[in-house]
Design a protein that fits this description.
Length: 328
């Protein structure tokens, strides 16, 4: 199908089917990938994960980041006061200059992928269809993180019939967009070139279409809400987070919590990621170094560290002990 009006009833019906399946869906932080594929010459680990996501992301126990209370019905969420997307200057596989600025005024879907990533290859036909349907107002851009030469990527592009520009990512672009910890990863940009949403893993194409339509001011069968970026989109905003994955702050007072969070954002992780402790906890929830260090900071801030072999007595116990002593 080419660009044109879409029947709202179709969207409502499809959205309802997605909503009906939401109880069988897990949030990304709860998924334990079966395997990971390291990127050469970097510590970064790319997780080729597949995630089917309903329009409503239900709050789940232990999930991070904590979601604001979710209203009933279908909801999509965009960042409040979004940041401009980091621009770049690349050559696409056809040798033509490729920048975000060239697509200013259109909604942009910036898709990081790789030829060896199964979920990435699986979503290509849906991205092709989406680009065809909204070609006048949407620009999909593929950024390959393959270590192979451009010729290998071009063969896949030609074989799959990709109808949007594709370029090879540089390490600088990967880091500008937060390291790209999973594939596929897609950033949704509004017509002003601002990043309003980030998706990791394989998503239902209906979600992308509804987000695109909402950003274009077209009718959608969902409610649009906004949220503050606390590191979910850009790691630089980790300093806004009041909770971090794998870090228990529940036993701290409000003052102690603020002190601990300050330490997390001021101290660099020593695992080699070049992030702060807070950023590392968001980027790599499995990092043992940042987890151990944040736990130690929490203990230090709470004053709960107990010397080995010494058991502190409660005030009541101390008073009772004193009362039982005979006066001399």
């Amino acid at each position: 199908m080419v660009c044109g009006k879409i029947q709202t009833t179709r969207l409502i019906s499809a959205a309802s089917r997605l909503l009906a399946k939401k109880r069988r869906v897990s949030l990304l932080p709860q998924i334990s990938p079966l395997h990971s594929v390291p990127i050469k010459n970097e510590r970064l680990t790319v997780l080729p994960i597949c995630l089917a996501l309903a329009l409503v992301l239900p709050t789940a126990a232990g999930a991070w980041p904590p979601r604001q209370e979710q209203p009933s019905g279908n909801v999509i969420r965009f960042v409040r006061n979004p940041d401009p997307a980091p621009d770049f200057k690349l050559d696409d596989l056809a040798g033509k200059p490729l920048t975000l600025a060239e697509s200013h005024g259109k909604v942009i879907l910036l898709n990081f992928w790789a030829t060896w990533c199964g979920p990435c290859r699986e979503e290509i036909p849906d991205l092709i269809a989406l680009q065809t349907k909204y070609r006048d107002r949407l620009q999909i851009i593929g950024i390959s993180v393959d270590d192979d030469d451009a010729g290998v990527v071009k063969k896949v592009v030609d074989a799959t019939g990709i109808n949007y520009p594709v370029a090879i990512a540089s390490p600088e672009i990967r880091m500008a967009y937060g390291g790209i910890g999973a594939l596929p990863t897609s950033f949704v940009l509004d017509s002003e070139g601002r990043v309003v949403q980030k998706h990791e893993g394989l998503r239902d194409p209906l979600l992308y279409e509804i987000e695109v339509r909402a950003l274009l001011g077209m009718p959608v069968p969902v409610r649009v809400e906004t949220f503050e970026d606390t590191g979910e989109i850009f790691l630089k905003h980790a300093d806004r987070a009041s909770q971090l994955p794998g870090v228990d702050l529940s036993k701290l007072t409000p003052e102690q919590r603020q002190t601990a969070l300050h330490h997390f954002n001021a101290e660099a992780c020593t695992c080699g990621c070049k992030f702060t402790l807070a950023q590392c906890r968001i980027y790599d929830r499995n990092c043992a170094i940042s987890k151990a260090r944040t736990e130690k900071i929490v203990a230090e801030v709470s004053g709960g560290a107990v010397q080995k072999g010494v058991r502190a007595k409660s005030p009541a116990a101390a008073d009772s002990s004193s009362a039982n002593q005979s006066p001399r």
